[in-house]
Amino acid sequence: MIDDNDMTSAKDTPLDFAFVLASSVHDMKNSLGMLLNTLATMMEKSPPQDAEQTRTYAVLEYEAARINSELVQLLSLYRMQHEHLLVQIDEHHVIDVLEEQLARNDMLFRTRGIHLQLDCDEDLSWYFDGELIGGVINNILVNCARYCRSTLLVSAKIIDNKLCIAIADDGQGYPASMLAAPHEINAGVSFSSGSTNLGLLFAHRVAALHRSREQQGYIQLANQGPLGGGVFQLWLP
Amino acid sequence: MAEAEYHKLHALIVDDFDSFRVTVSNMLQDIGIQFIDSAVNGADALRHCKNKSYDLILCDHNLGKGKTGQQVLEDLRENGHLNRYALFVLISAESSKSIIMAAYDYEPDAYLTKPITTKALQQRLGRLFAQRARMLPIMQAMDDERWEIAEALCLREIKDSGRYANQCQKFLGQLYILTGHYEKAETVYRDVLDVRQLDWAQVGMARVKKLQGDLVSAQQWLEDVMSTNPLCMKAYDLQAEIYREQPLHKRLQDVLQQAVEISPLSILRQQQLGDIAMMNNDAETAANAYRRTVRLGENSYYDRLENHTGFARATLALFREDKILAKPLLREALKTMAELEQRFSKTPEEKVETQLIESQLLASNGEAKKAEELLQNARNLSANIEALPIDTEVELVRAYTATGQKNMADELTRSLLERYKGSERDLEKLDALLEEPASEKNRSLVASINKKGIACYESQDYDAAIQCFKDALQTFPNHIGIRLNLVQALVDKLKLDVDAASMDLAIDTLAQIDDKIVPTHDQYRRFRQLQDMLRNLDNNRRR
């Protein structure tokens, strides 16, 4: 016998994109985790023999880290649009959040020979959505790993009653178009070059979701930073 | 925690992927943990925890078939197989926010997001254990009700304004509430709120105000939290608590409806919503809420027989009101009842009751023969039971009615009325079967609503009268008098101005009366008159 109800539900229900997205991301992250861990084991067992192997490992690490940060952003941006993503503001120790993102990318920095400096008071705490801000920092770190020469400086302090997290590098600095309007997605999107500028859009959106009293969070880009290259600043009230 | 101490810890890894378990196990060994067990699914994890006390559980949220990580945690906490001071870390691949919303009833100590690296895991566990070690004396003192010690420890941490000052302010607020020092608790929360609007401190203020008897301020605090942070489930729960105590049933239902919309995976809230909607005679909301409790209950510690029968009862109530709306739910309710056999062991009384409910579902679904057989089964079974509970007797009357045995239904109703004469509470339950209520409370209720409706009608405020009679029918669906009053108000409204919605409602209402009324009924003449008047109006409209 034909089941009327089930027939219509199979035919008429549109594909639940959120569900498809979430379950794919779940699988991808599982695989990515395996990939990263296998890579780490491999590098431990057979360390690079020459400069070329070092470069190969570095590429593998970098691309894996990029996939991860893109996935995180993708999900968050999707939710901002479709699920009215709301920030979950809580007290966090800033150093915990920074260290977690640095630890996450430890292998990446090592294979690229990047030296890290962290300047943050142990007890400094602030109020923000740890997961979203973690995602922003992760993204900027992965990006900087590509554009810096040898050193990254991550710092956090309170200035004018706002938390300022800064990530400075010793690279060539940000291009002029991005300095002017870091969050204008269209200005930076270039699918042919692979640069979507999505990371900065994401950072801008996340910062703006942080409000306290009359103030709102924001991001700033500058050149000639403390290490001579670019500096990304995230300001949270 | 000093690294030297990791070697003493017992850890359990729960994940359905072999490779993930091996990887995490290697990471824990790198950190220095030696005793590591692993489990492949929820049931396996529960078995492990029953046999051994762990210090650390790393559990994936998505465990394939069976329980989720969250449900494992709920089960462990409820059945007492989790050491109060153990760390439970929930791992997930997605952003944990949706899980956090679902996770409210029991919160894990931490969330980790995949992919996990050794260094990140090491840092995170190091921090968690350091915090646990520092907070342990306070938690233990609170558990043992050594309040002065707990208070002193909290105050010291707050004074040092170190890492855990914030956590200790939370503890201190709770402590003062538990010991009845409401003003001190208020000071703690105010100090926090002076610096920043934090939802836990706002909810804390609301709780203090409620305990001080200042419900207006409590409400104000809660509304503030909800407007700035609509995801703060604790605010909804406290508001529900206030409405339940007052009691304000309609508002209680509203706030629970908001809460389940935000956090639909909480089975306990769905259950509360089902209960209150049923009490408010909102069968549709009740049916949908109970239906979700059945689905969510599949692997949950909170699966209850009452959720399943609640779904069936609400579906039947909806069917009595609106067959079309109830139709899609009938089959699912039948399936739910069929599954009960495997999921619950039942007392003989419960068996009779579930069979009677199932019999009505079958009858409503057009399976008359099966319905009668099951009803007969239930009667045979009940022969061995001394006295059936009144709720079951009510279901028996309904099963007779549903299977077309009107005489049996009437006879049983009469004997029940005789048996429970003078017992107001039992009579209130029987009222649901009667055309006119038998209990004092409901008699006066019906009289007052009717009076109000008639007053509106006489002052020609037909809309108000219609609303009044409609509300009354929610509570007294069998009352032919009220139903006729509703039609009369509608007819007079239609005489002034014909609108389709009122016409449809009037036609439906008359059809429902037609199902029940017999020519010997003392309002039969009035019924026929209204029928004629409506037919004329309808004909004029069409012409």
Which tags fit this structure?
heterodimer; A: 237 residues; alpha+beta; five-stranded mixed sheet; two-stranded antiparallel ribbon; disordered N terminus; B: 543 residues; mainly alpha; five-stranded parallel sheet; 5 strands; 70% helix; globular
Task: Walk me through this protein's architecture.
The complex is a heterodimer of chains A (237) and B (543). Chain A is an alpha+beta fold and 237 residues long. Helices cover 53% and strands 19% of the residues of chain A. Chain A is built from nine helices and nine strands. Chain A has a five-stranded mixed β-sheet with strand order 2-4-5-9-8. A two-stranded antiparallel ribbon of chain A has the order 1-3. Chain A has a two-stranded antiparallel ribbon with strand order 6-7. In chain A, helix 2 (17-45) runs antiparallel to helix 3. The longest helix of chain A is centred in the N-terminal third of the chain and has 32 residues, at 51-82. Chain B is mainly alpha-helical and 543 residues long. In chain B, 70% of the residues lie in helices and 5% in strands. Chain B has helices spanning 18-31, 42-51, 69-79, 97-102, 118-143, 147-160, 165-178, 182-195, 199-211, 215-228, 233-245, 249-262, 267-279, 283-296, 305-321, 323-343, 348-364, 368-382, 390-402, 406-419, 424-430, 440-458, 462-475, 480-496, 500-516, 524-542, and strands at residues 10-14, 35-39, 56-60, 87-92, 110-113. In chain B, strand 4, helix 4 (97-102) and strand 5 form a beta-alpha-beta unit. In chain B, helix 2 packs parallel to helix 3, helix 5 packs across helix 6 (147-160) and helix 11 (233-245) packs antiparallel against helix 12. The N and C termini of chain B lie far apart (88 Å). The mean pLDDT of chain B is 90. At the A-B interface, helix 2, helix 3 and helix 4 of A face helix 1 and helix 5 of B.
